[in-house]
Design a protein that fits this description.
Bound molecules: iron/sulfur cluster
Strand content: 15-25%
CATH topology of the largest domain: Cobalt-precorrin-4 Transmethylase, domain 1
CATH superfamily of the largest domain: 4-hydroxy-3-methylbut-2-enyl diphosphate reductase, catalytic domain
Structural class: alpha/beta
CATH architecture of the largest domain: 3-Layer(aba) Sandwich
Largest sheet: 5 strands, parallel
Strand order of the largest sheet: 10-9-11-1-12
Radius of gyration: 21 Å
Shape: flat
Distance between the termini: 61 Å
Number of strands: 12
Number of domains: 3
């Protein structure tokens, strides 16, 4: 074999699975153990094809609506959260429903409810059409929550009473872009209430910080994640903004654009919060077929957060 060109691979840490994703996958597995197959899951449990396919193999059935679930089988709500109408309808149908909504998304749901009870109109910083956005906006009656995606949207807002406003955010946004939008909201509506604690979750924040630390050292960044994974797409953007000229979102090694990596001396690698470590190993193995790889870990935080699964899964069968 000819000598391979040397490559330093900067491996970002933290990367990959977060506590909310870990918990959601565990919920599906425990539900399959407890009730047997099939167990229905409303929407992809987390946005990763590899994870979804593995659970499908074990007997999970992924559907988009409650109407697609038979009433006599358990249904699980995905980590992204659901509008209030969904569990209400499951209860009306007397279904066994297990909520795999990440506790950090539920925290934002509770915030929205509390602000609304205090008579505040809600502004939600998030991405239109993302299931988390639909779930969080669906905690309040239609029209009660106004969506903004950009600083430009803030100027176009038409609110009920500028003195009675609060904002909340999606958990997987770009930390920097969100700060700009929040600043625009505060400039236009000085009385607006901000979330008591950051809505962007620790996993999103930590993964973006690690990419920022890696970006100045590399010629190219590979982010393992699904095209519909919000936090993964943000990692690509953060990499570019932090100075990495080439950043690519890949689902797995087969998606690597080798021509774009030709001549690279240093590559960064990270994975979104719903991408399993096995895919990171796969990408490293693929890089080793083309380069003489030296790995350098760039660790900007250590995570040791774990979330409990719902009580219904901790109870004995019977
Ligand atoms: Fe929860 Fe954050 Fe993970 Fe989403 S990315 S599941 S909010 S910990």
């Amino acid at each position: 074999m000819p000598d391979l060109p040397p490559l330093t691979l900067y491996l970002a840490a933290p990367r990959g699975f977060c506590a909310g994703v870990d918990r959601a996958i565990k919920i599906v597995e425990m539900a399959l153990d407890k009730w047997g197959a099939p167990v229905y899951v409303r929407h992809e449990i987390v946005h990763n094809k590899f994870v979804v396919d593995a659970l499908r193999e074990k007997g999970a059935v992924f559907v988009e609506e409650l109407d697609d679930c038979p009433p006599d089988r358990p249904v699980i709500f995905s980590a992204h959260g659901v509008p209030r109408s969904v569990p209400a309808e499951a209860t009306r149908r007397q279904m066994i429903a297990v909520d795999a909504t990440c506790p950090l998304v539920t925290k934002v749901h509770n915030e929205a409810a509390r602000y609304s009870e205090n008579g505040l109109q809600m502004i939600y910083i998030g991405h239109d059409g993302h299931p988390e956005t639909i779930g969080t906006m669906g905690q309040l009656p239609e029209g009660e929550v106004l969506l903004v995606e950009t600083v430009a949207d803030v100027a176009r807002l038409s609110v009920r009473d500028p003195a009675k406003l609060a904002f909340i955010t999606q958990t997987t946004l770009s930390v920097d872009d969100t700060a700009d939008i929040a600043a625009a909201l505060q400039a236009r509506f000085p009385a607006i209430h901000a979330p008591a604690h950051e809505d962007i979750c620790y996993a999103t924040t930590n993964r973006q910080a690690a990419v920022k630390a890696v970006a100045p050292r590399i010629d190219a960044l590979l982010v393992i994640g699904a095209p519909n994974s919000s936090n993964s797409k943000r990692l690509v953007e953060v990499g570019r903004t932090a100075g990495c000229a080439y950043a690519q979102l890949i689902q797995r090694a087969a998606d690597i654009d080798w021509r774009a990596l030709a001549g690279a001396k240093a590559i960064g690698l990270t994975a979104g919060a719903s991408a399993p470590e096995v895919l990171v190993t796969e990408v490293i193995d693929a890089l080793r077929t083309r380069f003489a790889v030296t790995i350098e870990l760039v660790e900007t935080a250590v995570e040791n957060i774990e979330f409990k699964v719902p009580r219904i899964l901790r109870q004995e069968v019977g």
